[in-house]
Specification:
Domain PhoU: 17-103, 122-203
Largest sheet: none
Function: Plays a role in the regulation of phosphate uptake.
Mean pLDDT: 94
CATH architecture: Up-down Bundle
Low-confidence stretches: none
Radius of gyration: 19 Å
Helix content: over 70%
Shape: elongated
Number of strands: 0
CATH class: Mainly Alpha
Organism: Streptoalloteichus hindustanus
Pfam family, one: PhoU
InterPro entries: PhoU, PhoU-like_sf, PhoU_dom
Amino acid sequence: MREAYHEQLQDLAGELATMCDMAATAMEKATRSLLDVDLGLAEEVIGDDVKVDEERARSEEHALALLALQSPVATDLRIVITTLHAAESLERMGDLAQHVAKATRRRHPQPVLPDQVRPYFAEMGRVAVHLARRAEEVIRTKDIDLARQLEDEDDAMDDLHRHLFSVLMDKEWPHGTAAAVDVTLLGRFYERFADHAVSVARRMVFVVTGKMPGSEDQH
């Protein structure tokens, strides 16, 4: 009985890792659709988002069943709690990738991005996918040193976002209001995607140590 219980706990981590992989793949494809003005790829991302939602529902169902039937304590309880919180972040990451793909679809056949900002989004997409893949590795290995590294790696996304905003605020911006709105929203989608990936990694630190990193600074 206990062996089956611990297998179920391991399954929860596997489900989170699967969701992380799905979110990373979605953002990778969404970025390509954005840069290449690829409507077919955008539609693929939009259609596949339901699979992330279904995976979240499945993982939450399993976590709640363990909570109700096994009354976990200590590390086991932290795993269940983390699953419930992290699954929400991972579903949101999938939603953000879908938002990027929907921007491509909305403006098609015209490109969403002016050439001036394309390099920013190519790099933001690369960083976002990298962070999601790293978070997946943290889930699978429970490597808290790697988890803490993600916070530093997220600085690259924050820097890109700040630089992008400075371009938008330049009085010489030549691309009009609609393009500025699109670029602002898209930049925010990538920034939030990265933030959620870091949040997932932070919760794995909580699983291992019982403390959220930097919790004394949280408000």
